[in-house]
Amino acid sequence: MLTRFLFLILVAGGGAALALQVAWNARLRIATGSPVLTTMISIVVTLISLLLLWVSGISARGSVPSFNSIPKWAWLGGVCAAYYLIASLVALPRLGAAAVFSLVIAGQLITALILDSTGAFGVPHIGISPTRAIGIVLLLAGVALIQKG
């Protein structure tokens, strides 16, 4: 039970960190004048942070697989991160943080439900239940209400 609670706290903290990241990067974008340059700076800082964590030995070091040993799509996660960062940076000044993140969360949950229901990309198959469908409807209603705010 405690382990599950700790995971819930860690993931919620990750969500909070994403909101802070976009707010801080939006301020950095004002200084750089470019969402792409701001994203590159953010990614370099991320890389340095991860490198420090990696060399510390806190986490398993692992190894880089050969290019052909895994599906080609498995290499493209960074493209999604870059898209997310740039889209958020461009949208935040126009929509505000709450609107941007309501849309981010809606996009994440809808995509996650599709991945669960299809088992795509090796995700464990979990069907769409009536409860999950109601959750998405309520989520989209929340997104619409935040957009009107």
The helix/strand order is: HHHHH
Radius of gyration of CA atoms, rounded to a whole number = 18 Å
Number of helices: 5
Contiguous low-pLDDT stretches (5 residues minimum) are none
Keywords, please?
globular, 5 helices, 2 domains, mainly alpha, 149 residues, single chain, 0% strand
Question: How would you describe this protein?
Answer:
- Helix content is 76%, strand content 0%.
- With 149 residues, the protein is mainly alpha-helical.
- The chain is globular.
Write the layout of secondary structure elements.
Elements: H1 2-32, H2 35-56, H3 77-95, H4 97-118, H5 130-148
Helix pairs in contact: 1-2, 1-3, 2-3, 3-4, 4-5
In short:
With 149 residues, this protein is mainly α. The chain has helices at residues 2-32, 35-56, 77-95, 97-118, 130-148.
